[in-house]
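TICKET #2291
ISSUE: user wants both folds in one file
ATTACHMENT 1:
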Amino acid sequence: MSKAIPSLLVQGYEVVIGFETHTQLSTQSKIFSRASTAFGAEPNTQACAVDLALPGTLPVMNKGAVERAIQLGLALGSAIAPRSVFARKNYFYPDLPKGYQISQFEIPVVQGGSVEFYLGDEKKSVRLVRAHLEEDAGKSLHEDFIGQTGIDLNRAGTPLLEIVTEPDMRSSAEAVAYAKELHKIVTWIGICDGNMQEGSFRCDANVSVRKPGGPLGTRREIKNLNSFKFMQQAIDFEVRWQIEQIEDGLEIQQATVLFNPDTGETRAMRTKEDAADYRYFPDPDLPPLVVAPEWVERVRSEMKPLPRVLAQRFVKEFGLSEYDAVQLTQTKETAQYFEATAQISGHPKLAANWVLGEVSALLNRLQVSINDVEVPSPNALGPLIKKIAAGDVSRAGEKIVFQALCARVRDELEDLAKFIEQVIDANDLKPMNDTGALEAIVDTVIAANAKNVAEFKAGNDKALNALVGQIMKASGGKANPGQVNELLKSKLA
């Protein structure tokens, strides 16, 4: 896999990226009809007369789709237009039964706003231009083995919210971090299931390069990126390709391109159209969409706390760093798991370390969710953290007890604290409390590591860490690291 290009100049060029994200809204019916939006039905079984624009049919706006657009606007600090209009976007494609797409052009329902996120430990912000409601097209099914293409119109009329950014991103890493944050927000507030494989969250990346301080370059749009991994690979390839073209004296042509994950390359699909090519005009069958202030306030009152609000509360109530609080609110399930563990254990900072450390490593290793039975529940992890905070289990023993909890079905034991105590006793995992024995180990290590002792006395703090490591190893991991540090410093003063 290619390495993500950082937000620095690439061969003397600045990378400029903007995003258009098609978010499928979580309504049960389509945006202008009562047809189902359920995924996986037999082809062409969920396309009604309205979706096909048969003579005599009229579209009717789905109120649930509008409310979900309002939710996103409130979540991102956007303005909700009191009056917005729908237009017909005209183009021909086999899976577009009407010959036009109903969308919003001049006056979208959601305007402005921003998405804030972390890239590593650096806080970033991407400005939004707009988010507008529109209907999805159908899907072309290419059967290469028989040389035919079929059309499935089940998706036709599915409600979408297209979220458009300013060209604020400067690397593939930043673009992926933005897309992940947006994905987190739309799934957190429940307006989209976020299933990228099923096409519920599809990203188009507009990529260009320019010399620093120069005018924006010609952009090429990479369509339908449905994986964060492919997103990074596609943008990195496109950046390198554009730079090579320019360095060879060739001009970049505005185009729509596709990414092939098998080759890791992008290829042009068609020349990119401009707005004028779509011949937008107001849809005569749909009146203006009016959103009263009372409607906005009702939606606001019904929304659950957003990730950033919950993160701020974790910082204030639990004394966590802003970075840790943001990581703990990546999903609603993780936030709930942490909060429950913090309350049960009474030690929120230690709980945060465990959730972001051992628990996250377990999730990645097993590829499971935080609520699966393989992961110890807060009712199990909380008592373990209590034992750790009280100094009742050795450093080496912490992971052994955690692994023992992982082997149990969630909460199958009535007294998890008693089970933890049994594991500690059975495996001799209590910390070393014999000060005399610990001092003897410290003296032995000091005598055997004259070089590290000399380096520490000369001002090299890393040499102390080496000595601590030797003592922890000699004690079988039972010594208290804090006590070891204090003993060493007093003996070496």
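ATTACHMENT 2:
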Amino acid sequence: MTKKIIFQITAVLLFLSSCSISTTDKPTLNDYKIGEKWVWKWSRSVEGEVRAKGEDFKEVVDYNGKLGFWNGTDTTQVSTTLDQKQSSTPFRSWPLYVGKKWKYESEWKNNEGTKGKTSQDAEIVSFEELNVVAGKFMAYKIEYKGMVTNSRGFKGEMSDTWWYSPDLKTYIKHVNNDGYGVYTNELISYSKAN
């Protein structure tokens, strides 16, 4: 082979290796340890005015001899959360990788008894470094765009952007725009297991 052909083959191989798809699988039970804790701050703004704000947290605890997620009110087994069968229209479609697309659909009921349905097209648009209050983390940026309807006759467009950090096994930021206001949720602290 000539030097020119060797150079061309080498260039193609380097290009193909740089295009390899990096994927992230769903966390397993062994990925969680007692004492891990995530804290988020959230706010709901309408026309630029903050109408509500607060904090949420999730902590890994011992729950009847098994791992549980405690949110200050309720505890659910980590295995129950992880072992849910993935539907054909899941919220998060595993494994994650840039460029992946899927349909997300969910039927729900809020605290006031209003029933609704969310239907969105989801796409992982990038894997990027994001700076939040808790620090800098690499995260998948996942965009959801579609419609929401409810039993009170509401029908409107809704968009969500989630940043999911594989290292923290959860989202580090979420921005929701339902056409009336913007809901923002951001990780403000993460504590490793004791």
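RESOLUTION: both attachments delivered.
EXTRA DETAIL ON ATTACHMENT 2: Helices lie at 3-18, 78-82.
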